[in-house]
Amino acid sequence: MVAMSMADGYARLTGKPQCVIVHVDVGTQGLGAAVHNASSGRAPILLFAGLSPFTQEGEMRGSRTEYIHWIQDVPDQKQIVAQYCRYSAELKTGVNVKQMVNRALQFATSAPQGPVYLCGAREVMETEIEPYSLRQEEWDPVQLGALPTKVVKNIAEALAGAKEPLLITGYAGRNHAIAPALVELANTVKGLRVLDTGGSDMCFPADHPAWLGLRFGSEQYIRSADVIVVVDCDVPWIPTQCRPRDDAKIFHIDADPLKQMMPLFYVPAQARFRADALSSIEQVTAHLKADAALTANLAGEAREKTWGALVASHKERLEVIAAKAQPLEDGTFGTGHLCRRLRALCPEDTIWSVEAVTNTVFVHDNLQPSQPGQWINCGGGGLGWSGGGTLGIKLATDYESKLKGGKGKFVVQIVGDGTYLFSVPGSVYWIARRYNIPILTIVLNNKGEFYLDCLLEPSRIH
Fold first, then answer.
1. Is the pTM of this model over 0.85?
2. Is the pLDDT assigned to residue 445 strictly greater than 90?
3. Which residues pair with 90 in a beta bridge?
């Protein structure tokens, strides 16, 4: 699971597909919840596993030679992880292995990205083939399109005429160009608020007045908004806890608006579109600026008052968060205060790798991430992601920065105490020590007390 989570972390930060190789059925099972996390978190990972040999009399090179070859032979090994994968297949010959690998990678890297699985028996792996090559440019990911012109006009007009517009997202920040694009949209539609309901990535900066922070499916502005745009989000709200007003206009833009891997999913949108998030946001912003009537509607004294109210609301939100994070009179403190101290002591561009589970909202509220790629949360519900995930993120930032002549960023893992144990810390720190991967781990004690030497000696974290 650690290796899979490392691949997940690297892929999540860079968008570059990673490969994990395991041993037959038991190795595939050993991936465990990490496959769920990669699938829910949209991490492009190629999984490869061997199969027990399918001959036993020496008919082919690679025929069975060990007792375990019979024990590890299962009817359909792919089915162990197939329902979590974008694609799964068995390699049945060596002569088209490059095509099969490229096809798998196309699925892994095409939106919505996710893990893929290939397996092959020893006879196939030992096949002698004639060397051949492919034109790799023919195997690029499938690209999402932009919104139809009429749709752009409809969304722009709805936002321009709204009294309480709201944009809800979850995964859009995976593309690091999204946050600046959302800021431009929020600056254009004064009064627009932006809510993050998944916490998977840093989607919108906390220092902008439109920021509502991270909430899991329940927020007062969902109830009051008259126009809602949902962009790359799995759970915009939880109907039993919070739902939009009946007359709200709802537009749903997503790489996978049908959520084809979820048996139950629907939102009461007036329209839904399979489109690229960045292109869609840029289209709507451009239309708002180009249409004279809409531009006039977005200007004037009334809009300035709306902007002033938004600024005041944001300031009040930050003050409330700060007040709740104050230590108690006896000197004890909670997650909020700890995270504020971390934000003050760690480098400004620190990457936060978070698996705080029930403390996630408190962590996000007080870290207040503002830079693209700065916040990466576990993509799913499989506890134990952050140990390996943080190592993968640190490897990614160091290696990718080195390619550009720079230096990798400081990486901090924030994890609950029970979840910390799920991450197999013995393996995590052995790998960190063996391969010189420096990370800072913060373990949250669910009794509300925290022990962190580096808060007393800040120089120790650099």
1. yes
2. no
3. 119
